[in-house]
């Protein structure tokens, strides 16, 4: 079927198999490899991207379901001058990653969380990220990073 999908601000129209998952569309068709595949069963959150600004697990969404919609991946967060978006910048500053496998999904889930709640409490961050698993960090620095990146935070 033919789909038109806006990916990181660029529009693409092409034929895709009806059963193609969005994560495979992004990684294989678009060549955007930042979005990882962990479990492939909607559990780990490694594949999280934004669909019209909302965090979704792209291993659970068909490319066809993104027809006429806008997808943002980690690659799409960089400005044209390559400047780091505040959320990945905070992950770097607060050491919110170790192996980095969960990080793209964690960052995209955090961007969505902060868009909905610009000044979350620690508990709200932990709750908001409960669909994203990290096997390395113990989550503390990830939570610190999200709190540091919160646009409503006082410092
Ligand atoms: S790969 Fe999609 S939730 Fe784990
Ligand atoms: S940093 Fe390794 S899984 Fe999160």
Strand content: 5-15%
Mean pLDDT: 95
Distance between the termini: 49 Å
- Fraction of residues in H or I helices: 25-40%
Poorly predicted residue ranges: none
Strand order of the largest sheet: 2-1-5-3-4
Q: What general form does the structure show?
A: globular
Brief overview:
With 155 residues, the protein is of the alpha+beta class.
Describe the overall structure.
The protein is built from 5 helices and 5 strands. It is globular. The mean pLDDT is 95. A hairpin with a 2-residue loop joins strand 3 and strand 4 (54-57). A 5-stranded mixed beta sheet has the order 2-1-5-3-4, covered by helices on one side. It is of the alpha+beta class and 155 residues long. One FE2/S2 (inorganic) cluster (FES) binds next to loops.
Annotate the secondary structure layout.
Elements: E1 2-7, E2 10-15, H1 22-29, E3 48-51, E4 54-57, E5 70-72, H2 86-93, H3 103-116, H4 122-128, H5 140-149
Parallel strand pairs: 1-5
Antiparallel strand pairs: 1-2, 3-4, 3-5
Bound molecules: FE2/S2 (inorganic) cluster (2 copies).
Features:
single chain; alpha+beta; five-stranded mixed sheet
């Amino acid at each position: 079927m033919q789909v038109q999908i806006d990916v990181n601000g660029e529009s693409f129209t092409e034929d895709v198999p009806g059963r193609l998952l969005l994560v495979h569309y992004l990684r294989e068709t678009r060549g955007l490899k930042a979005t990882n595949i962990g479990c492939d069963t909607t559990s780990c959150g490694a594949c999280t991207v934004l669909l019209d600004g909302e965090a979704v697990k792209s291993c659970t969404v068909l490319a066809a379901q993104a027809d006429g919609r806008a997808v943002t991946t980690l690659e799409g967060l960089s400005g044209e001058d390559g400047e780091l978006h505040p959320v990945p910048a905070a992950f770097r500053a607060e050491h919110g990653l170790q192996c980095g496998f969960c990080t793209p999904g964690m960052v995209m889930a955090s961007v969505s969380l902060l868009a909905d709640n610009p000044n979350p409490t620690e508990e709200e961050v932990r709750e908001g990220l409960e669909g994203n698993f990290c096997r390395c960090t113990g989550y503390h620095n990830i939570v610190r990073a999200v709190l540091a990146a919160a646009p409503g935070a006082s410092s």
